[in-house]
Amino acid sequence: MSSVVEPxxxxxxxxxxxxxxxxxxxxxxxxxxxxxxxxSCLFLDDGVVRLEVPGEHLDTDVVLGYLDAGxxxxxxxxxxxxxxxxxxxxxxxxxxxxxxxDALLRMTGEAPDLAVSVVRLIATDLATKLRxxxxxxASVLEASAPDLVVEETVARGVAAQRALDAVPEDVMDAxxxxxxxxxxxxxxxxxxxxxxxxxxxRVDHKTMKNAWAxxxxxxxxxxxVGRGPLGGTDTVTDVAAPVxxxxxxxxxxNPVATAMFKVLSALRSGNAIILSFHRIxxxxxxxxxxxxxxxxxxxxxxxxxxxxxxxxASRQRTARFMAHPDVALILATGxxxxxxxxxxxxxxxxxxxxxxxxxxxxADADLDQAAGSIIASKSFDNGLICGAEHNLVVDAAVxxxxxxxxxxxxxxVLDEEEAARFLxxxxxxxxxxxxxxxxxxxxxTLAGFLGIRRxxxxxxxxxxxxxxxxxxxxxxxxxxxxxxxxVDGDDAALGLCLALLDKMGTGHTAxxxxxxxxxxxxxxxxxxxxxILVNSPGSQGVCGLTTDLAPTLTLGCGTFGxxxxxxxxxxxxxxxxxxxxxxxxxxxEPILHLL
Length: 595
Known about the structure:
Blueprint (H helix, E strand, L loop, with lengths): L20 E5 L4 E3 L7 E7 L2 E4 L10 E5 L4 E2 L1 H6 L6 E4 L3 E7 H10 L1 H30 L6 H17 L4 H17 L1 H12 L4 H19 L6 E5 L3 E7 L2 E6 L4 H14 L3 E6 L4 H17 L7 E3 L6 H9 L5 E4 L3 H8 L5 E2 L7 E4 L5 H12 L12 E5 L3 H10 L2 E3 L2 H11 L16 H7 L10 E5 L16 E7 L2 H14 L3 E7 L3 H10 L2 E6 L3 H5 L32 E7 L7 H4 L3
Parallel strand pairs: 11-12, 11-14, 12-13, 14-15, 16-17, 16-21, 17-20, 18-19, 19-20, 21-22
Antiparallel strand pairs: 1-8, 2-7, 3-6, 3-8, 4-5, 4-7, 9-10, 10-23
Helix pairs in contact: 2-3, 5-7, 5-8, 5-9, 6-7, 6-9, 7-8, 12-13
């Protein structure tokens, strides 16, 4: 039976050409923004459009869905005149034709038959979308129904993990060494591809990060016992066993380095792993995954020991992976929403929390050393490291000297007018967060947009500010800019650092620049942070580059931050440790007299 709203969505009447406007967009360009006037619709001729709702955190999935060629964008706004409810972004080149409400109204008078055809076309598109929405709702209500992609991927992973049990430790050592070498050799190429795909960060710094995730992490695990006896005493022997199949979430901020780290860590402890990359990074997933499979196949290991989700994963599918009874552990690195989902899945999880690192520059700090550390850290990969400095808490006695040294080392210290203009440009219209387009961009780029110039290349933007805990200025900033909060004395500094962590970043990292062991002890005692860095740059210190902390790309925040561990998470966290306890004489003598 034919529909009253024919013709097909993909068949636009030829005479429509005089009523529409051709338009094109490149990959990543915004077509419409949530909140824009709903005064037109787009007939999509070629390409794919991603629909998103505004999100506070870069790594928290906010995708509603995708539109393909033949579909219509914005038809509801065309009909009801309400503001756009979502942001539409070109995923690759996009070409289409705009029809405005004014043009449609003129059409009803000048070409009524055509107007009826267009309205029927729009109605067909809306009906199709409504059916699809109903289907998705039904699938949510039928949550127990199997997902064949999930079931098959998990089954292959479980089989591969069992096969890994028969791989001798020396063979696994050779495989991991080969993988690390392959990762290291591809560090620069994959860094360039990462920036090309994500449009955030710096190629040279991502190259360093990839190399550290490959070679630095490997150095920390080479020759270690992944499975089997670990030693002990005459009466208790520790024996390591794999946890099983691991599900690893990969963020957009550090996709390749995090994937390298998780693959090496899983294999070192005898586990198979399924990687779930942020949707933006799917091209990188294939490149990293194929590199891993080449090495595994060369050594005769099952390639299914390392798998990755090969298509855009819905929240529902990701949730099914995480809740699958044969997934033993979730290793979650990403936005707060994804980490909460991991902990809520019912599967044991190791997750992380957001950073909002306070950096206290005390009255006795070495200002040259402190300024150099701050510039090196906050400019690294354009500020994308969660453990970098996010707030400078500076003693009044040294604040002018620190700002002078920061300027001398490449910072742009903004005056009051520049700071106001900058914050107005980078914060969202509702004043609750930062615009997504500023995340991971260089300080020079951000300054250039606003006409802020210095006689040198700007590494970091710094400005004096009041510590307003209701402002996004006191929140995590994944970009190379820093507020400076001036305090009088140690008590005020500790109080503000505590308040900043209490707002965001509890359990993550705190930094102090001082020569006083008393101050260090007071700082460590007062702050609920898993990593207390002393006179170290944050980005490099948290992952072990400038400290003796364990090399990692996953930073636990402990129960301070709602996580299961305060560790720099490593391969050692991805194993069960059994304890063989031999019989000893009863330990009753010390308590018998109490009976």
